[in-house]
Amino acid sequence: MICKGCYADKQLVKAHIIPESFFRNLRADEKTLLLISNRAGVHKKKAPIGVYDKTILCRECEDRFEHIDDYAAKVLVNNDGIEKIRRNGEVAAYRLNEVDTDLIKLFVISLLWRASISRQDFYKKVNLGPLEQKAKDLVWQGSTGNMHDFSFVFAKFDDTEKISKVILEPHSERWFGRRYYRFYIASYVLYVKVDSQSTPEIWERLIPSDNTLFLLSRGKLEDSKEYPVLVDAVKAGSKHN
Ligand SMILES: [Zn+2]
């Protein structure tokens, strides 16, 4: 089959879109994730440790992502030294210091590209269109482009336990007239701009300019609008066990 990375006719491997390392805090007896779709008529299903696609990448191309994925997991999953920024006593944001923010951006772009080329149903709504090639070129060059290219914002839920067992389908949405994709990964919601317009001013302030990564707080998972959907899915899923 043709690899979408090097375009050679080679044997393709199980390529993860959201890296396996993001699910490492699942217990040993829970090596499946619940995938939740909000499309009508599409039912949730279980998938062994995330979603992989055997139709996109060869071993050599898949290996290109290894150090990027490992670094992103180290920063975002382990998040050692994460600092809470409080406003009026409430956690408003988080700060991670001494982060290679270029490498995190490269991770964001590579995640987006992999989701876009994937034929897995779970990533059906992710289609970068004319920006797909641009995303690929940046990843292959190890470049993050200019500050507005695929600019992103991470938001974090307070708890990590509950959300790590389920993931919601990525989808596109509009923010301030720009097209964004929303991904749920580990305890984060990632918003990434896929639009040739510049970053909305309010989100421009969150573009990393040094080694500091600011993350917005999404508060407690229990208080979120996603929570009822997750609870229903977990309950429905457990009936089949
Ligand atoms: Zn390849």
| Average residue pLDDT | 84
Strand content: 15-25%
Bound molecules: zinc ion
The sequence of SSEs as H and E is EEEEHHEEHHEEEEEHEH
- Outline: globular
Spatial ordering of strands, largest sheet: 5-6-12-7-11-10-9
First-residue to last-residue Cα separation: 36 Å
Task: Give the oligomeric state of the chains in this entry, treating copies of one chain as homo and distinct chains as hetero.
Answer: single chain
Q: What's the total count of β strands?
A: 12
- Helix percentage range: 25-40%
| Number of distinct helices | 6
Taking the sheet with the most strands, its summary is: 7 strands, mixed
Structural class category: alpha+beta
Poorly predicted ranges: none
**Number of domain units:** 1
Describe this structure as you would to a colleague.
The chain is α+β, with helices and mostly antiparallel strands and 241 residues long. The chain has one domain (15-232). 26% of the residues lie in helices and 25% in strands. The protein has 6 helices and 12 strands. The protein has helices at residues 59-63, 66-78, 101-117, 131-141, 201-204, 227-238, and strands spanning 15-16, 32-36, 45-48, 52-53, 83-87, 90-96, 152-157, 166-168, 171-175, 178-185, 188-193, 213-219. The chain has a 7-stranded mixed β-sheet with strand order 5-6-12-7-11-10-9, covered by helices on one side. The chain has a 3-stranded mixed β-sheet with strand order 3-2-8, with helices on one face. The chain has a two-stranded antiparallel ribbon with strand order 1-4. The protein is globular. The mean pLDDT is 84. The structure holds zinc ion. Residues 3, 5-6, 8, 57-58, 60-61 line the site of zinc ion. Zinc ion binds at residues 3, 5-6, 8, 57-58, 60-61.
